[in-house]
Design brief:
This protein has one domain: YaeB-like fold (2-Layer Sandwich). It has four helices and five strands; from the N terminus they run βαααββββα. The chain is an alpha+beta fold and about 110 residues long. The chain has a five-stranded mixed sheet. The longest helix has 17 residues.
Length: about 110
């Protein structure tokens, strides 16, 4: 079964579309190796564990840095649950809480 990176749906698609164009391009460049070898093989600094089942894809653009929080689920699916432009040193608790709420809706 091939690896895939999927979004949680239209809400997440809109979050990605709201990112600046250069950040969207950086995000897509990061998706390619994740689908090819898996997030665990891509590793730091592009992929980092946050807490529990949450991990983040780390990418940047001219306007700063951005994150896409994901959950790796059963099989070869990496499901994105939240994407945003990061404005502080640490990932905001509200972003983590939102990602966890969305992750609970994923079916294995």
């Amino acid at each position: 079964m091939p690896r895939t990176v999927q979004t949680l749906g239209t809400v997440l698609d809109a979050e990605i579309a709201a990112l600046p164009k250069d950040m969207q391009a950086a995000f897509l460049r990061l998706v390619e190796p994740i689908e090819a070898v898996g997030p665990e093989q891509v590793g730091h600094p592009h992929v980092k564990h946050l807490r529990g089942k949450l991990w983040e894809m780390r990418f940047s653009g001219r306007d700063g840095i951005a994150r896409a929080i994901y959950v790796t689920t059963v099989g070869q699916r990496t499901i994105l649950v939240h994407a945003f432009v990061k404005k502080s040193q640490t990932t905001p608790k509200a972003a983590l809480d939102l990602a966890e709420r969305r992750a609970k809706k994923i079916e294995p």
